[in-house]
Every structure is written in structure tokens, then in C-alpha cells.
Give the backbone structure.
Amino acid sequence: MTAETTPPIATREHTVEGFVREFLRELNFGQGVDLTRASVNDKYLAMARTVRHYLMTRWLSTLRSQAKLQAKSVAYLSAEFLLGRQLDNALLASGLEDIVKEGLASLGIDLEELRQAEIEPGLGNGGLGRLAACFIDSLATMNVPSIGYGIRYEYGIFKQTFVDGWQVEKPDDWLRLGSPWEFPHPEAAVKVGFGGHVEQYQDDDGVVKRRWVPGWSVLGVPYNYMVPGYDAGRVNTLRLWSARATRAFDLEIFNSGDYAEAVRAQTFAENISKVLYPEDSTPQGKELRLQQQYFFVACSIKDFVDQVLPADFDLHKLPDRIVFQLNDTHPVIAVPELMRVLVDEKGWEWDEAWAVTKQCFAYTCHTLLPEALEVWPVELLGRLLPRHLEIIYRINDEFLAELRVAYPNDELRVRRMSIIAEYPVRAVRMAYLATVAGTKVNGVAELHSQLLRDKVLDDFAAYWPDKFTNVTNGVTPRRFVKLSNPGLSGLITEAIGDGWVTDLDQLKGLEPLADDAEFRRRFREIKYANKQRLAGVLAERDNIVVNPDTLFDVMVKRLHEYKRQTLKLLHIVSLYEKITTGELAIGDVTPRTFAFGAKAAPGYVMAKQIIGLINAVGRTINDDPALEGRLRVAFPANYNVTLAETLIPAADLSEQISLAGKEASGTGNMKFMLNGALTIGTDDGANVEIRQLVGDENFFLFGLTEPQVAEVVERGYHPSAYYETNLDLRNALDLIASGAFSGGDRAVFEPIVSNLLNEDRFLALADFQAYVDAQARVDAAYADTDDWTRRAVLNVARGGFFSSDRSMRDYIERIWHTYPVAPEA
Ligand code: 26W
């Protein structure tokens, strides 16, 4: 098959008629139904498959040019990809929105109804997973050759329901109605081993070698997803792996009547990609979690080396063709896996293999919580992956030997930096392994990266100062402005053209319009329309009534004590306490809607308690007729990407109130800024850079800084002292303790109150007064509606830096050293 004879890739007509023809063909021949009898899901699946046909041309030409070009690619290894719904993004990328809307309408079909039929693939917990999704969107839009590798969980992040205000998890069976955006390739399945032992043998030249003899194995079946660039030729690939048994079914055992045993291997294997671990900070250290990590990493490396690279590729040049970006420590087992492939399978010498391996990886750390850094007991790792443990030991031995040369009489430092921790149990510190093997280590915001250098990985930063860098997070403006806020997008494009969608710095052009009364009026109008839209969604989705004529004060993120949803609660309870005691006249209270969205890891008891208290306080306030239309708490269940797309454009105030030094970056903060909300926040994570760019006068800063927190903790923190000295705080805590929000039952929320009074690990009480004072500044600012709008416009205008496109440019420049390649026309 020569170039000139290479068959052209089929194309589709970008016309209403063309689309309708395709759609009906897909509905009749693909879905096997005719329009008169088609269900909403039939129509949705047919429409989705039709839209993907339009992207296929670009996907196939991308893949074709990829194979031809020797370009360096980025392999983004992530245990999570929080993609959100795919249809809108596919319509945007294919420029089909209007054609599809008109085409469907001509068939009497409402696009909105089909949009609502799509089930969101919740293959992630929160920040880390969503960031991965934003990044692959930017890489495609910027024409950078890259591939995302992850796991196709059969069950994603649990569906959150509230029963009497308490979180109850339901399985997320997201595939039950079909998944039109994936392309399974069982023929490209990869075999992955587990367990077993390592044996020594002599190769043909009599050289003593070691090889792994797995005890059992599974198959990894790849499912490809399109990652369409916006207004770019490129459609990159996201490859998610699903586990299958190597032997489907043991007929002998079946015929012997032991049916369960016959399928045991099957179920056992499939368990590996069955469900996403719903933790987003405290690893449970479960064996299945490690199986999941090794499974997708082994599949991905084998896939890239054997499938993506040309068969005759010299792996010594691997670093010129690929950089494996490690999205936190979850995929770090990839380092010993590549060593195993090069030494055991390709027969390379150790040094030869290490010289290449240590040029192929880079590591991004996404946390500051010591408990979130994964460590795997050598007992478990040695049992599941005996050869990998051997390899990790050797990497560590050589590293410690190197350190002893650099620090001859500082055995303590050497011990401190060892990849192997000796206590409380002998375990592998995955963050240390990633740092030793990675070409670069980066944090996700300036402050975070500094704290990694100064505190978390300080010994390593001292030894390898150039290895440490920063890349501040970003978000994709396609999904989080263009798609989720069409009103604002239209206003921006009218004012400065639509170049901003792929070059967000152009938002700067809006600055002068902050002083334009007519522009402000339209900006406010759009915000109000977004608030009405949210009100409609909450009424229909959760039976929650909110009043758009109130300040929308929004806090949406995972429930975690360091994010301090309790501090937000203390503000609300204090306000309520003052109103009920008459200290505050309801007329003097700025009408507010306190909106929350938050899932708690199922095993995180305190987090679930806090959810219970938020709903209890909400019920009390919402049932109080005196507060009707003035104060309301809205806590829709099951916060996810889809709900965020409606909530964030409606917000006036963005709550980013974590304890300084705890939130690595935050990305919700960026989405709120770009959608014209003002931030009330601490100097934590990317809040610092938001405040620097938007200006102090357009940001409500409060609270202890990270150095001050360190000092308070150093000195010894006594939360009860704040209780004793701050009357408002005491009244608020006493009201909770009194059972006022739990039908007089004091026991229900006692754990929260006593934790705050006796431990308060994240200094909520210490920052209470500063927070309440900042909220008073918010009230004052909001009273001047037009000036508030001016500040909101400046937040949008100065938010360009927080595009994930800019983050990608930083990764390319500082870490990946790859470059955009436009696929062949
Ligand atoms: C093993 C358990 C586990 C699972 C996930 C530990 C830690 C994680 C993630 C690293 C947690 C996470 O999502 N971190 C968030 O990452 C975002 C993207 O960089 C940041 O913006 C957030 O600040 C950070 O909390």
C-alpha cells in the first residue's frame, strides 16, 4: 500500500442534510430502530456516533501522521481522568452545534433532551482527575502529539445521595446505557502478570540473569477515546485499559459442576478495573489499588513500546520519542516496569537501561498532606511484584551509594532520603522513587512548589536543585467558559473577537470595558441569567429553590477538613445565631444563597459528619419563614463536572478558604475567576497567583499565611482559646453543640464541635474572625452592585494566565521539550 494508493479517509458533509442523512443511517442501521419508535437513548447514541464520524477523519489523519512523524510524544499516565460529558465538547470541536441543532429539530428532536441523556464518565475523584482532562484537551488543541493512559473503571466515582441529610453512596454504573465515545480493541489486548516469583538462569552466553515468573495474569483490553482539539486538526487519543481474564471460563471445572469456581478467574481479573477508589487524600494501601496501578502502567508501557513505536525502533532513543508524565505517585511503578522490560525482556545491561529510564519520566506532585503520599509495604509489593521490588532495591542501593559520596559522613541524611522507609513498616516511598527517577519534579502552584522544595522534598531539592520546578495549574477555557457560559462567551467575543478561546491572554482586552457602564450592565444581565438557569436546574434536579436576587456564595470541592467547609459553616451559623437573637436585623443582612457541592470519601467519617451538619443547618435556615428569600442554603447532591458547569457561571463569590499551606493549587478557584466571580480566600495554592494578577482590591484576602501557620503550630495551637475569647465564635459553636440543628439531640454533631475545640488541625477557629471580617467586606462591596461588576469584569480580564494551554506551554518549555505538530491535512 503506497502513499498515492493510500485510500483517502472518508469524510462527512458539514451540512444539515448531510448530518440528518448520517443520523438516520446511524439510528436505523446502527441502533436498529426507526425514528418513530426510537427511545431518547437510541437517539442520543445515534447522534453521538454520528458526531464522532465527523471527528473520525481528523483522528485517523492524526494517527497516520503520528506513525510517520518521528515527533516526541507526551504520555500522560493518570489513574484518573474526570472527563465530564463528551457530546458538547465534540460538537464544539467539530463545529457542528448549529447544524446538529437544526438537523435534529427538522426531525422533531430537541437537542437539549438528548444532551441530558448523556451519563457523565466519572473516572476521577476531583482536582487531579479533572486536571488530567483539561490537560489532554489543551494538548490536542495545541497540536501536541500526546496520549493519555488510564483505567476504564466499570464503576466511576460513586453517586452521592442524601438520606436525612447524610451522604449515602450508590454505585456509578455509568456504562449501563452504552458508551458511544469509546472504541474497544480486544485484538490489541496486553497480558499483565502478577505474583509468582523471580528465578535466576543463565542466558545463552552463560550470563547469569534474573526473570520474573508471574503466578497469574490478566488481559488488558484498550478502549480508545477521541480527544478532539478545538479548532485544530489534531484529535489525540485517550487509551483506557479494562481488565479481562486470560482464560474466560474453565469448562472442565464447569462440567464438574463447580460453576462459581469456573468463572472465578474471570471475576477475579475483572475486579482490577471494576471500580475507582473514592479516596482523594488518604491512601487505603489496599492490594487491589496497587494491582490497578501496575495493571494500567504495564499495559501502557507495553502498548507504547510494542504498538506505537515502529517495530525497528532503537529503544536507546526512547527519551527522544516519549516523556511519561507521572500524574502524582499513582503510576510510579512505571519506573521499575520500564527497567524490567529493558533488562529482563530486551536483555540490556542495568546501567544501559537506567541511563535511558531516568530520562523518560517526570513527576507532578499534587498534594501537601503527608498522609496523601503513597507508601507501599515491601511485604505487599514483594508479594505482588517480586521482580519490581528487586529493581527498586537496586535503584535505591545505587542512589544511596551516590549520596554517601556526596554526603560522606551524613548517614542520617542518607537514611532520610532512602526510597525504602524502615518504620513504622519497611515500605517503598513512591514520591521518593519518582523524584530519584524523574528528570523533573513539579508542584502545581508557586507556593506549593516552594513548599515541596523547602519542606516535603527538601533533602532532594538540596541535592538536585535543578530538578525541581513549578507549573501552575490551569483549566480549559473550552469547557469552563465557552461551553458552560455561552452568555459570557458571546459578550467577550463581541467585544474582543473569539481568539481568546485558544489564546486566553487576549481576555486582557476586556480591562478597559470594566469602566464601560453598558458593558457592565450586560455582564450583570448574563450573570443574572446564569443564576436563573441554576435556579431552574436545582429546582428540577434536587427540588431546591433558590432566589436569583441574592448573592450566590459558592463552595464546591471535595469535602476535606483542610478545605475548611467547617469555617464556611461557622460563618453561616454565626449569622443565623445573630439573626435569631435579634443582634442582627434581617433587613441588614445581605440576601445570600450559600451553595455547597462536596463528596466525602466513604471511609472519611468526619467529612461525612460535616456533610450532615451542612444539611442540618441548611434545613433549619430553609425552614425558617423569617429568612425566606434572604438566606438560603442549597446543597445539591452528587456534585460533579456537569453540575459544576451550571453552578460556576452563576456564582458571585468563590469560596477558597483552605488553611494556608494545605491546598496544592485548586482549580475551581480559576474556573470561578474566569466566570466573573470574586474570590474570598487565604493565601494558599494558586489563590496567591490569582490575587497577584487580579489585584488586592479585587480579591477578599484573609487569614494566616503559611509561615504564620507554621509558627502557630510550632508554638502550640490551642483552639479553645479562640472559643473563650471570641463571643461570636462561642455562640456559634454553642448553638451547634446545643442540638439546635439536630432536633435538640446534642450528641449528633458533638464530634465536630469537640474536634474543633480540642484539635482543630486546620486552624478554623484561628481564622474565624478574619474570615467573618472579610465576609463583612464582601457585603459592603456587593452593596455597590455596579462596582462589584467592575471588579468581576477585571477578574475575567486578568484570568488568562489560568488557561491549561498556558500550563501546557510551561510543561513543554520546562519539562517535556516537545513541540506542536499539525497533522497532515
Ligand atoms: C491515594 C489516595 C489519593 C488520591 C488522589 C491521594 C491523593 C490524590 C490526589 C493527589 C488528590 C488531588 O486531587 N489533589 C488535588 O490536585 C489538584 C490538581 O493539581 C490541585 O489543584 C488540588 O489543590 C489538590 O488537592
